[in-house]
Design a protein that fits this description.
Helices cover about 55% and strands about 15% of the residues. By secondary structure, it is of the alpha+beta class. The chain has two domains: about 250 residues, 2-Layer Sandwich (Beta Polymerase, domain 2), CATH 3.30.460; about 70 residues, no CATH class. The protein has a seven-stranded mixed β-sheet with strand order 2-1-3-7-6-5-4, with helices on both faces. The longest helix has about 60 residues.
């Protein structure tokens, strides 16, 4: 799918016909060409119209600095990742930007909310968008705002998990996995924001970039620095929360083991006495097979067992091991 935004008598019109590129459209009037999962014909038509080659998806996903931003005598090529929030985890979608003259070309494979919203603004406020460079800066501005919203939402989720820990709610394997997923999301957000920081820094060093837009980029850099600090803080909170949860789980396990150990120790003396009087030999108090033995012998033996139990209990109590 292709969407071409161009100037027309002080307004900005849009067409989705690829044949317009070979018709009466002047490259100086075209502000933005948006390619959404384009066909081969659409991509080749745009390349012929601009006179440059548009980067492929594989090139847009490369992580080398030279692949993320480059420029030649005719164009500026920039690649960055846009984050798509999901119910549990976040996804990264690569977007390729090509700036030729005053025209911007974007190449993406999935719909993105920031670009859809900008397309509505583009026709509603045509005076704000004089060239593809202003459109590009606005896209970056909107993405930084969305990244800030995601970091804010993540901070609220971390606070909720902290409250659950403070209220002694049930902490199980699922709880720990949720915290781990939040850590993964925090790393993705930070990686996404740092990627835009590098892109904007390269744009500021480019001699092709309009100087009148540099103040907006400087403001974006300041915002990004703040977002990186918030992302780092959120990750540190998650690490502290994870350590706290694991510590509580270890305490519960130690408490259970302490109970089992105590029960075993308390039952050892009575078990020894019961085993002693279970031997088939003549023993004190009761004789083996003596029909004249006292009927109170079993009571005396149980009493000795209870006395040994109580003695061990008092010893542990005195040593504050209970």
């Amino acid at each position: 799918m292709i969407s071409i935004f161009y100037k027309n008598n002080g307004m900005i019109d849009v067409t989705q016909s690829v044949t317009a590129l070979t018709g009466s459209l002047d490259p100086k009037d075209v502000i933005w060409i948006d390619l959404l999962a384009p066909s081969g014909e659409e991509k080749r038509s745009v390349e012929a119209f601009l006179g440059v080659e548009i980067q492929s998806r594989a090139q847009a996903e490369e992580i080398e600095s030279s692949s993320r931003f480059s420029e030649d005598a005719d164009a500026i090529y920039a690649n960055t990742n846009f984050m798509i929030p999901g119910p549990d985890e976040y996804a990264m979608e690569a977007v390729s930007f090509t700036l030729v003259g005053t025209s911007l070309t974007t190449l993406r494979e999935v719909p993105l909310r920031s670009l859809t919203e900008l397309q509505r603004r583009l026709q509603a406020n045509p005076k704000q968008f004089t060239s593809g460079y202003s459109v590009f800066v606005t896209i970056l501005d909107q993405r930084v705002d969305l990244d800030a919203d995601m970091i804010e939402l993540m901070a609220k989720e971390i606070t909720q998990y902290s409250r659950r820990v403070g209220q002694n709610e049930d902490i199980n394997d699922e709880f720990i996995l949720d915290i781990n997923q939040l850590q993964e999301n925090a790393m993705l957000v930070r990686e996404n924001v740092v990627d835009k920081q590098r892109l904007i820094s390269n744009l500021l060093r480019s001699p092709k970039f309009p100087t009148e837009l540099e103040p907006r980029l400087n403001v974006l850099l300041q915002d990004i620095s703040s977002l990186i600090n918030h992302a780092n803080f959120s990750f540190e909170r998650l690490e502290y929360l994870q350590d706290t949860v694991l510590g509580l789980i270890n305490l519960d396990q130690n408490r259970i083991m302490k109970v089992f150990t105590l029960v075993s120790l308390l039952l050892m003396p009575p078990t020894l006495i019961a085993s002693f009087y279970g031997m088939n030999v003549r023993l004190p108090i009761i004789g083996s097979g003596d029909p004249g033995a006292s009927p109170w012998n079993w009571v005396i033996i149980i009493g000795v067992m209870a006395l040994s139990f109580g003695t061990v209990w008092l010893i542990f109590k005195k040593k504050k091991m209970l």
